[in-house]
Amino acid sequence: MKRISVYTRGFTHAASYYRILQYTSKLGNVDITNRFTVTDKMFRKYSDSPTLLCKIEYHLMIYFKNFLNFAADIISKPDTIVISRAAVPKVCVFPIDLMYEHLLKNTQVIWDFDDDIFGINEITKAESRLLQRYSDQIIVTSDYLKGKLSKKCANKVSLLPTTDGDLTVSDKANINRQREKTYGERINVLWVGASSGLKHIKNVVPALDNAAREVSEKLGKKLTLTVICNLPLKMETKYLKIRNIRWARDIVLGEMLKCHIGIMPLLNIQRSMGKGGFKLIQYMAAGLPSIASDVGINRDVVSDGETGILISDAESTDDWTDAVLRLSSDLENWKAYSRNSMKKWEEDFSFDRNLKFWQDILSE
User: Fold this and answer.
1) May I ask the CATH class of domain 166-349?
2) Of the spans 89-103, 149-163, 262-276, which averages the highest pLDDT?
3) What's the 3-state SS for 195-230?
4) How far apart are alpha carbons 298 and 310 in whole angstroms?
5) Separation of alpha carbons 106 and 100, rounded Å
6) How confident is the model over 154-180, as pLDDT tens digits?
7) Residue 57 neighbours by CB distance under 10 Å
8) CB atoms inside a 10 Å sphere around CB 76
9) Coil, strand, or helix at residue 310?
10) What per-residue confidence (pLDDT) applies to 93?
């Protein structure tokens, strides 16, 4: 049986879970060892309150856990190692740099990342050089991220979107039952993300507040924004009700099934180019129409006018208001967007499609 070591930051780290860990128990015919580089408790602490002391503790934990992880895999060499994003962010130094290179040179290496880890300085130049040199296969979400790699890597790069197997809905015929009951009285807008993305949602709250006024005056409905995040969105609004829910993986689907519109605003900045459109893919899995900024990969994920609406100017109050009104005015129109969203997810972003990709790549 093929032996595989998977290096991630654990189940709480979203990229680690959605890119590889949600598949590992379903791969079959392989012996997988998860090499977590931090504990869930430490990752939550680092995400919620990244003080200087916390950052030091976080990276020291990564250093010493990887020392033990690398030593274990050097002593009992696996057939394949999978590296999620960066195994040793900011701490690729002696002696683990030498241990890391020894391990990479002597095993099949699959490197996966879903964000511009170079632009946000998540990966050191030393580790980047090692992974580009020794990886047998590199998996990314977009051509933009592929372009961040050396041209020598081009022939070993594969594209794979990030999806969410926990949002697979078995009873698709009744998926909109709760939404349809509330549609005539209120429209629930949803944003799901980490605290690092709050700057994007803050940018459009004034537009959503204006949309809430228009929805009330023209349609007689209330507009609510539900924010599912590890930290709350704190902004003053006049018409828009903001509802904060602390993120937990097992509550997301239930909240999505109460909502009518999912949003993914992005500031038109360099870092946004590396995003993989994961929120939009999550919305589609649950049959949720979306409104998104026409930035980066969003324009590839959203079929404008079919699964959602793209906004060319992230700061345009009128554009966001018009988009909200379009999806709030006509139930039959909204249901068509919902059906198209589920159909596109099944065709392009389904869990089973991604699972087969990992089964194929790890069995080679």
Assistant:
1) alpha beta
2) 149-163
3) HHHHHHHHHHHHHHHHHHHHHHHHHCCEEEEEEEEC
4) 8
5) 10
6) 999 999 999 999 998 888 889 999 999
7) 15
8) 10
9) strand
10) 87
- Name the amino acid, one letter, at 99: M
Q: Cα angle vertex 64, ends 58, 67, to 5°?
A: 140
- Torsion, Cα of 180, 184, 186, 190 (10° steps): 30
One fold for both 2-160 and 166-349? yes
CA dihedral 63, 66, 72, 78 (to 10 degrees): -160
In this structure, CATH architecture of domain 2-160: 3-Layer(aba) Sandwich (3.40)
* SS3 of residue 301 by DSSP: helix
Burial 175-212 (b: 16+ CB within 10 A, else e): bbeebeeebeeebbbbbbbeeebbebbeebbbbbbbbb
Neighbours of 298 (CB within 10 A): 24
Per-residue H/E/C for 95-159: CHHHHHHHHHHCCEEEEECCCCCCCCCCCCHHHHHHHHHHCCEEEECCHHHHCCCCHHHHHHEEE
Buried b (16+ CB within 10 A) or exposed e, 234-256: ebeeebbebeeeebeeeebbebb
* 87: its two tokens: 């195994």
pLDDT of res. 49: 80
- Which distant-in-sequence residues (6+ apart) come within 8 Å of 302 by Cβ? 277, 280, 290, 292, 308, 309, 310
**Domain boundary assignment for the chain:** 2-160, 166-349
Instruction: Judge if pTM exceeds 0.70.
Output: yes
Q: CB of 140 within 8 A of CB of 166?
A: no
| Under 8 Å between Cβ of 263 and 240 | no
